[in-house]
Design goal:
The chain is mainly alpha-helical. It is built from 6 helices and 3 strands, in the order αβββααααα. It has a domain of about 70 residues. About 45% of the residues lie in helices and about 5% in strands. Bound molecules: zinc ion.
């Protein structure tokens, strides 16, 4: 799998878990409309664009939203590959060893683990979708390191 394919697979699995009720179809969080939602390719509001995480615009209520909205990843600046790595690998025994092995600073890792409650329904769904797509923690780790996360 190339970096581009992995990025696409990460986004696809994330959105399938995020919008499980609509089978991965982005839905406006305000008016719950799906028909008028457009992906933002040239973001007029760059602050809602986070790397591989797509942003959307609802042409009905004019709201902009990222697919991370209303998930534990809301407002994150950490790449999706890093999150996927932690979601797949589970809670580490040692924060120090995990930060060394995964190439994530201890501070960032601590913040991520605090947000990733293991029994959060979204996290469980994403983990399943990642596994179904054949994505491994090791793959995500290599990808995240290359991105300079
Ligand atoms: Zn809307």
């Amino acid at each position: 799998m190339t970096s581009k394919q992995l990025d696409a697979a990460l986004t696809r699995t994330f959105e399938a878990a995020r919008w499980a009720d609509s089978h991965g179809q982005p839905t406006c969080p305000k008016c719950f409309d799906a028909e008028d939602v457009r992906v933002v390719t040239q973001p007029s509001r760059p602050q809602v664009c986070r790397g591989a995480v797509p942003s959307y615009h609802c042409t009905c209520c004019l709201r902009y939203f990222a697919s991370t909205y209303d998930t534990p990843l809301q407002q994150t600046k950490i790449p999706l590959a890093c999150w996927a790595c932690v979601v797949l690998a589970g809670r580490p025994g040692s924060l120090y060893e995990a930060s060394q092995a995964w190439g994530i600073t201890r501070k960032a890792l601590y913040a991520m683990l605090r947000k990733l409650e293991p029994d959060h329904p979204f996290i469980g769904r994403w983990r399943q979708a990642l596994k179904r797509a054949g994505i491994t923690a090791e793959q995500c780790h290599r990808h995240a390191v290359k991105e300079g996360a």
